Amino acid sequence: MASQDRSGSNDKLPDLSYLSTLFFTLHIASGHVGLPLLVIILTTSKRIRRPPSVINLCITWIVFSVSHCLLFYGGYHGHYDPPFALCLVQAAMIHGAPPMCVIGVFILVLHVWYLLQPPWHPFLICYTNNVSPFVRLALVVLPPYLVFISICIGVVLTGLYRPSSVVSSLGLYCTIVDMDSVFSVPVFCAVFMVLILILNLGTLVQYCWRWYALMKVNPLFSRSTSLNIWLRVFIFSLYSFATLGTTCRTPYLRLSEGHVACSMFLED
């Protein structure tokens, strides 16, 4: 199966190998150096305390970055016919990584909303009294990786069944041009990004409402909202939009892969 010619599919995809230096530099600088250092600082510093959702989100983006560099590790970047096993593993990881990251962002936003709720909130009372700390930690940490593994298994099975659909896309990394895989991942990510933006908006409205209520109760309370808080909200909102663009990738590339998938489907 692995010996089937995959060059025909590659010819229909745009060649972006000229961007390989920039592409791998950004991934290595951020996902191989910057984020691991941040995780080490967050986990070892006695002065900085961060919830598991923040650390877990950083780890998911490290996996995202590593998944895009597998051909680079093997010395096959820019090649259009790398070893099938390596190409299949990277295709599976690349399709599983965006949903993993978007679930990580969703859990982080949900955690921020959770922290803003009053102690007497019915959900908090039920959640705190009936769910053990270990289970709570598992609910924060495990979902992104369960989604990642599930999608990886599906892509691997598809690639083994149709080896010709596994291609070294764009001269940068391997992907799979199966009809279901090409569009299901962006749709999955887009749905959760809409939920993330709704939660972001709800959290911001709730914060503003509580600030206004405090102003009414205590007129001496400062009328100037902390710039640091608003800056964090603004940056996180921009980050959410950036995540949507990253996880869904560009419409042009997805349409290119979709065109190849349709062509292969009709040829069969």
From TrEMBL:
Domain of life: Eukaryota
Transmembrane segments: 20-42, 54-76, 96-116, 137-161, 181-209, 229-247
UniProt KW keywords: Membrane, Transmembrane, Transmembrane helix
Protein name: G-protein coupled receptors family 1 profile domain-containing protein
Source species: Somion occarium
